[in-house]
Amino acid sequence: MMTVIRKSFKRELFLCFIVVALIPMVITGCFLVSVLKERLSRDYEKKTQEQLVSVENRLTGIFDEMERASEEILSDEVIVEGITQTDSWLKNKAYKRLYEKTQDLREIAWFHIYDAQGVCSLSTSPQGAEGDLPTYWGLLRVAGTHSQEMILRRASGQQSSEPLCLQGARAILDENEECLGFVVIDMTEAHFETILSGTYNEENGIAVLNSYWEDVYSTKAAKEASLAQTLRKRRMAGEDLRQTTDGITFYIAPIQQTGLYIILGKEPVFTRDVTNMTIGVMMIMAVCSLFLCIAAAGVMSNYLTAPVKRLSQAMARVEGGDLDVQVGSLRKDEFGQLSASFDGMTRQIKENLALQVKQQKELNDSNIAMMQAQLNPHFLYNTLDTIKWVAKAHHVSELATMASGLAKILRTSISEAQFISLSEEVSLVCAYMDIQKIRFDGNFSYDVELPFELEDCMVPKMIIQPIVENAIIHGLKERENGHIFVSIYEEEATLCIDVYDDGCGMDETILGLLRERNREELKGHIGFYNVDTIIRLHYGTQYGLYAENQAEGGARVRVTLPIVRE
Amino acid sequence: MKKRMLQAVVCLLAPLFIFGGCGGQVQEEYRLEESNKLVIYTSHKEEIYGPIVREFEERTGIWVEVVNGATNDLLDRIKEEDGKDSGDVMFGGGVDSLNAYRDYFEPYVSSKSAQLDDAYASPDGVYTVFSRLPIVIVYNKKLVISAGTPRSWRDLTNSHWQGSIAFADPDRSGSSYTALLTMIQILSEDMSEEEVLEAFVSNLDGDILSDSGDVIEEVTAGKKLIGITQEETVLKEIDQNADIAMIYPKEGTVAVPDGSALIKNAPHRENAELFIEFTVSEDVQRLLEDRLYRRSVRKEAADKETWEVNYDLEYSGKHREAILAEWKELTGQQ
After folding, report:
1. Is the domain of B73 the same as that of B50?
2. What's the domain range around B101?
3. Phi, psi of A51 (to 5 degrees)
4. B20 contacts A241? CB cut-off 8 A
5. How much is the pLDDT for B302?
6. How far apart are CA A527 and CA A517, in angstroms?
7. CATH of the domain at B105
8. How high is the pLDDT of residue B250?
9. Nearest CA in chain A to B292
10. Cα Rg, chain B, nearest whole Å
């Protein structure tokens, strides 16, 4: 994986961008969500606890009031006497008192007075005084044994038309601690609704449980969620009261001293939907930034690699010898500066090279001048002329020929002109060969072929002579009747001068050295090298000297030159 | 290299999980001790077990879990559980049924056994009796004049009542089987088992009710004129102003009790014993007669009525299969 990424600058950039963009986003996202969640839940829980407390306060307040009312009732003689009264007038008086005492509470509970046998005697309920309760069982049994306090019990059984939720009871005792009857308070669902209205939000379920977590009163929402049953079941089974699968969070608070509990069931603030949505949003953002990363990586890598690529291409061309390359970047950044330096560098190299060539040429020119001026030529020339005339006077024709030829060669050599016409060059060569012929006792012959139209072509002076010299000295060495043939012609707008001999031919090593233009090794054949060098310096590398052996024997040396006329 | 990167990522992400784990444990203050629990299997209706269980809770502080169901289902469950992860007490079911599953109960003799009616007491303490349930004949007062009511078990075999008797399937209803056996037992002096069954089944005219609760309903609604059911249901219905009345057959009738039994290997045995003691306590037995239309099993309350005859528990148990098979044959259920 890493190796794949490492192979491309674009991919490396992409990875970098992802790391830089995505990780902080995910981390901050997660942090934000969890902090928000924590914070919201805490607020929510606080609010819920407040609600719970307000419900608790309301109920405790009501129970206190009931306790107070029942206290007043059982200490009211008129009511207590009314329990056993059959006289309707006295009963009526008792009723009046009872209604007086319970004035504020009748909205939220029914008050009954039972006699010592558990038969209902007085009642504020719409049904009036009817029914009885066992005194050996349940509510009245406990009230009888705990006469100093009000007993609260979950109501059991159907004792009136409306289902009862909670019953309270307190025994009425005479001064001998003898039970005269009971004050019984009934609370129905409607009563609870009245009491609790305004203390909680409708959407939350509220349940009041007894000490065994049996349902005393449940709001509609709590009934639907079967809050009481679920919690009792969990507590019985020893399970966690709050379970993660719950759609509802429970809050539990005991109501002091009554043995009752309030359960508040709330939908959690962070429902699964909300969590999923947050995650969804984060995912979408992550995908977006992923695409952004891809795009940015593409653009950035192009922006960064394009100048590098151009530079490396230019570098390759310079390596191939092309010094005219220019990158010409318009950018102002480091890449622009780099390109500009590169352009400057190639320019500089080019200039340096040209300068070097020029200096070399100047050096060569001075070399030639030096070579040409090694003896005071005028003295030699005049001497030779004198020899010629003396020889003529004494009729020594060979001497005259040699002296006049030598004089001609010398004059041409010492003349200021670098270039001479081809006809002059040819006559120079002829003079040279005439001298040599006398030297070598007429052992060879020669022919020169110069077309008329090429006679006025200008060539560097003394370029044929060294070749002919070589042919005579090396080619025709120890040979009787050798022949030298100089052929000059035009071929493809190039002037060609071929020198043939029918001698022993050239050594292959010499030919090789000539092809390699190896000056150091060309001892004895330095004339060839000089000719070649002069031509190349004057006309360029496409011209020069080429030597080879002929199949029928002997050697052929060709010199090529441009056709230049004055 | 890769390890280091992994470590870095873990370090970065670690804080996220700090906020994660806010799960709910059992709140310690609400943890219940095992010694404070009791599991009751009961076939009683809520109106019977409800007040008793709640009062038991209030008096003892023990939390009671109630598993409610039909007698046979619960007994089968106990058999299946065979003392593993089972409940503590089987509360309800005729003493004959409880006796049939004696292998899955632990003998327990109540400390109050001396004060209890011993007519149907378990000799080896398999069960403790709870309430007596006389079998009676109920009739619709509007449709049957009191002079014309059936007076005896024998009357029920009289073709005069053909198609007018509400009776539940004895294969499904324990009380119905008891009634059938009572009839056979009482008429056995001059009628054979088969004769009784044949005469009675033909009187039912093929109309057999599936639930014992339907008997009183059919009679109250006037679909049937008379019915055979338990005294308890009739009394309750009369209390709710139904226009019906009941007759104790002149040959006498049985009052076979139901009972409670301690389940083998009960996890909360002590509480289970407390509960059984409670079911036969003076207060509960008084409440039964007072409010729940049942007859107490305590000696002081269980003075033998003149109509009461003894039920042959042993015979009933031994011949159950055979009698039910014959019943099914006669009613065409097989």
Report:
1. yes
2. 34-132+257-296
3. -60, -45
4. no
5. 59
6. 12
7. 3.40.190.10
8. 92
9. A157
10. 26
Instruction: Report ipTM for this prediction.
Output: 0.79
A157 touches chain B (CB under 8 A): yes
Residue identified by tokens 């963009």 is: A21
Could you tell me the pTM of the whole model? 0.65
What is the DSSP-derived secondary structure letter of residue A85?
Answer: -
CA atoms of A477 and A564, how far apart (whole Å): 35
The stretches in chain B having pLDDT less than 70 are 1-27, 302-304, 334
Inter-chain residue contact B19 with A138, CB threshold 8 Å:
no
**CB–CB of A30 and B13 under 8 A?**
yes
- Cβ–Cβ under 8 Å, residues A213 and A261: yes
Asked if A327 and A314 count as a contact pair (C-beta separation under 8 A), the reply is yes
CA A239, CA A245: separation in Å to the nearest integer? 13
| Minimal CA separation from B87 to chain A, in Å | 13
Reported in sequence order, the residue ranges of A240-282 that DSSP labels E, i.e. its strands, are 249-255, 260-266
Is A134 within 8 Å of B58 when comparing Cβ atoms?
Answer: no
- Chain A residues in contact with B40 by the CB 8 A cut-off are none
Tell me, yes or no, whether B2 lies in a domain: no
The mean-pLDDT minimum among A38-42, A497-501, B86-90 falls in A38-42
The 3-state DSSP class for residue B260 equals: strand
In a domain, B180, yes or no: yes
Whether B91 and B234 share a structural domain:
no
**One domain, residues B262 and B142:** no
Same domain, B248 and B270: no
Identify the band that residue A184 occupies on the pLDDT scale cut at 50, 70 and 90: very high
Residue B3 lies in a domain: no
Which pLDDT belongs to residue B53?
94
Give dist(CA A395, CA A388) in Å, integer. 10
Question: Shortest CB distance from A31 goes to which of B16, B57, B63?
Answer: B16
pLDDT, greater one: A411 or A167: A167
- Here the tokens at position B81 are 């559980």
**How many domains does one find in chain B?**
2
- Within A263-333, residue ranges assigned H as helices are 272-319
Tell me which residue of A545, A559, A555 sits closest to A508, measured CA to CA: A555
Q: Which of the residue ranges A358-372, A384-398, B56-70, B236-250 would you say has the lowest mean pLDDT? A: A358-372
Check CB contact of B24 with chain A, cutoff 8 Å.
yes
Q: Quick check: B283 and A244 CB within 8 A?
A: no
* Nearest Cα residue in chain A from B18: A34
B55 and B120 assigned to the same domain: yes
Judged by CB atoms within 8 Å, which residues 7-46 of A form the interface with B? 23, 27, 30-31, 34-35, 37-38, 41
- Closest CB from A27, A156, A241 relative to B30: A241
Considering only alpha carbons, which residue of chain B is nearest residue A250?
B24
Q: Do B26 and A142 touch (CB under 8 A)?
A: no
Q: Are residues B93 and B185 in the same domain?
A: no
Partners of residue A212 in chain B, C-beta under 8 Å: 54, 57-58, 63-64
Q: What b/e sequence results for B16-29 when a residue is b if at least 16 CB atoms lie within 10 Å of its CB, and e otherwise?
A: eeebeeeeeeeeee
pLDDT at residue B21, as a whole number: 38
Question: CA A24 → CA A28, A104, A285, A299, distances in Å?
Answer: 6, 64, 12, 22
The stretch A266-285 carries a mean pLDDT of 81
| Average pLDDT value for chain A | 85
- Whether residue B21 is contained in a domain is answered as no
Query: B229 and B188 in one domain?
Result: yes
Q: Are residues B230 and B86 in the same domain?
A: no
